[in-house]
Amino acid sequence: MFWWRRTVLRRRVVVNLADRAFAGVLWAKRGPLLVLRDATLMQHGAADTPMDGEVVVERSRVEFIQVTGG
Fold first, then answer.
1. Mind spelling out the 3-state secondary structure of the chain?
2. Which residue has the higher pLDDT, 3 or 54?
3. Partners of 56 in the beta sheet?
4. Are 40 and 52 in contact (CB under 8 A)?
5. Which pLDDT belongs to residue 8?
6. What CA–CA distance (Å, rounded) separates 37 from 25?
7. Separation of CA 69 from chain center
8. What angle do CA 25, 30, 20 make, to 5 degrees?
9. 10-59: per-residue pLDDT in tens?
10. Could you give the CA distance from residue 38 to residue 60 in angstroms, rounded to a whole number?
11. Residues 67, 11: contact at Cβ < 8 Å?
12. What is this structure's pTM?
């Protein structure tokens, strides 16, 4: 069940929220949370902002996830 969830871990993704997006490596899924490393904040009309440390996103806020690269 949900075998695809494992294939996305440790891959570069774009996590799209309603008002912004984060690009980074999906490092872990901890209950209702997604953990991204090496992340960049992307907002409409603003320059991309590199984020320090890990970024934690609530899965309930995620609109969709794009897997980038090969």
1. CCCHHHHHCCCEEEEECCCCEEEEEEEEEECCEEEEEEEEEECCCCCCEECCCCEEEEHHHCCEEEECCC
2. 54
3. 35
4. no
5. 82
6. 5
7. 14
8. 50
9. 999 999 999 999 999 999 999 899 999 999 999 999 999 999 999 999 99
10. 22
11. yes
12. 0.86
| Band (9; pLDDT cuts 50, 70, 90) | confident
Those residues with Cβ within 8 angstroms of residue 62's Cβ, 6 or more apart along the chain or in another chain: 15, 16, 17, 34
Question: What does each C-alpha distance from 34 to 1, 22, 46, 49, 62 come to in angstroms?
Answer: 19, 11, 24, 19, 9
HSE-CB at 10 with a 13 A cutoff on CA atoms is 2
